[in-house]
Amino acid sequence: xxxxxxxxxxxWYLLVLTLVLVALGTFVVVRLRESLTAELDRSLNLAATQIxxxxxxxxxxxxxxxxxxxxxxxxxxxxxxxxxxxxxxxxLSDGDPMARVxxxxxxxxxxxxxxxxxxxxxxxxxxxxxxxxxxxxxxxGRRGVVVVSASLQTIDQSVHRVLKLLVVGGAGALxxxxxxxWWLARKALAPVERITTHAERxxxxxxxxxxxxxxxxxxxxxxxxxLNAMLDRVQExxxxxxxxxxxxxxxxxAPLAAMRAELDVSLRHDELDDAARRVLESTRDEVVRMSRTxxxxxxxxxxxxxxxxxLHEPVDLLAIAHAGARDHAAAAREAGVALVVTGDRAGxxxxxxxxxxxxxxxxxxxxxxxxxxxxxxxxxxxxxxxAGVTVADEGPGVPEDLRERVFERFARAEAARPRQAGxxxxxxxxxxxxxxxxxxxxxxxxRPHGSALVVALPRVAPPDEWAExxxxxxxxxxxxxxxxxxxxxxxxxxxxxx
Length: 498
Ligand SMILES: Nc1ncnc2c1ncn2[C@@H]1O[C@H](COP(=O)(O)OP(=O)(O)OP(=O)(O)O)[C@@H](O)[C@H]1O
Ligand SMILES: [Mg+2]
Hints:
Elements: H1 5-58, H2 60-70, E1 80-84, E2 90-95, H3 106-113, E3 118-124, E4 128-139, E5 142-151, H4 153-201, H5 219-267, H6 274-304, E6 313-316, H7 317-326, H8 329-335, E7 338-343, E8 347-350, H9 352-368, E9 375-382, E10 386-392, H10 400-403, H11 426-436, E11 440-445, E12 451-458, H12 464-469, H13 478-483
Parallel strand pairs: 7-9
Antiparallel strand pairs: 1-2, 1-5, 3-4, 4-5, 6-8, 9-10, 10-12, 11-12
Helix pairs in contact: 1-2, 1-4, 5-6, 6-11, 7-9, 9-11
Bound molecules: adenosine-5'-triphosphate and magnesium ion.
């Protein structure tokens, strides 16, 4: 799963700040401990020098007297002094009783005797962490070492307190940065989100819209301008393609009509032999198919140019269903498929010719995908809000992978058999016409008993005279249809796909 930039930016802020705080905290703690220890060393050194000088001049008595006055934190654990012989034995001691045993090792004693300043930290089993300073002393020709010790507990406590403050302060700073970083990232990315939302609304049906360019001439302004320039190019390309399709279809229409007329005339000659007749008939079928595709392309070009005009007159969907079915009655007979129209008269506002084309396209598909001996049912229905026509067949149903895009242009099953192969424009046209009527079209899966395509339009109240004519449900079969339905829509005009 992709993590949003906002989250990633905030996480990066946090990571960087955590590293900075840890580095800073470590530096502060180490420096603090160093400087406090140096401070202690100075006072231990001073005390050791004073004790050594007292011991040098007056011996044991002054040793104890001076020790009691100069030892840092006298009477506390770890605060002590001792005089060691060069061999490391304790000659005198004062303060914490632990000083009765030598507090530094032979190496430190030797170093102190050489005059090197000795300051070391040592963990004592009884007194804990100790800081020890040793200085040389000579009394009456006898050399020795004065050792002064103090507990490091106070320093540890101070460092610990600072560490605690750093942790608490650091956590607070991290929380603030998390909130602030999140807010900043949101604020910085909000224009990107606005551009994205706007760009998402621009679809192929209306490419004239452009994203709003932010006022600041920064990266986001650049992004918006680049996006708009790209949309300009896309729109130009789409318009050029639409013009090409419209022009080409227009140019093809007349020659195709002429070819069809000439083929019809040629087919009327009786002296044609069978082979020639078959060739001419198949050529005419191809020409008819091409003319139909060209008409479809022209209609879609009109839709794209916003020039698809539909009438909005009261129409009777039952009459339209009959007319649409009748247009394909011959094809149904040829395919051995029964074509049945059922339902009552239902009123809608629309363009009878266009709606007849919709029903015709649906019936055409249904017949093409129906096995011989099965039935295609055209049912007219009405609810309180809608009136519509359902065309159901007993074929294989629309393949799963096609169902989503079956109303898009040129969408058709890959493995269509020759009898079924079309240009893939029929249902796209049906949708455009339905939409132009403020209606809708959808597909219902009725497998294993085929598919049903439903077109629904806003309903209008039927005229009064219909009620008088109504005499229950009527059912017409393809043979009945070939004679024509009882009622014809008054405004039916010739449609391209006949
Ligand atoms: N009743 C149906 N049963 C099974 N598949 C169908 C049915 N109606 C449509 N289809 C599938 O949907 C595709 C698209 O149908 P559409 O009517 O748009 O195009 P077409 O029939 O292939 O070509 P055209 O209608 O332009 O001659 C068809 O190719 C077919 O695969
Ligand atoms: Mg079709």
